[in-house]
Design brief:
This protein is mostly helical. About 85% of the residues lie in helices and about 0% in strands. It has one domain.
Length: about 110
């Protein structure tokens, strides 16, 4: 039992550095899109939101040390950013998305 826990800990530690490098590269991609690409460029919005999603996913997965929690938070924040872009993102929508994310997390914890 103790050996299995140790192997799991070593496996998690091995994945830290590559994940950190990928997260940094994704954030550099987001920053480069914001600074160097014109907003009117065709097809840049889906690329921007996809890069934001991936950057948030890798960052929150590292912070929480759990991919599911990172994915839930990344989906919620990306959805809110899309709503803000469309002009309908407000505090009520943010709280509703947050409530749905918390409910999904509690569902998976209980299951």
């Amino acid at each position: 039992m103790r050996r299995e826990a140790r192997l799991k800990e070593v496996k998690l530690r091995k994945n830290f550095l590559p994940t950190l490098i990928v997260a940094i590269l994704l954030w550099l991609g987001v920053v480069s899109i914001v600074y160097f690409v014109e907003p009117d460029t065709f097809g840049i919005l889906p690329v921007f939101f996809f890069l934001i999603f991936l950057a948030l996913l890798f960052t929150f997965s590292l912070l929480f040390a759990h991919t599911r929690r990172g994915a839930l938070l990344a989906v919620g924040l990306t959805l809110f950013l899309i709503l803000r872009y469309l002009g309908i993102g407000n505090i009520l929508n943010f709280l509703l998305i947050l409530g749905i994310a918390i409910t999904v997390e509690l569902y998976f914890i209980k299951k």
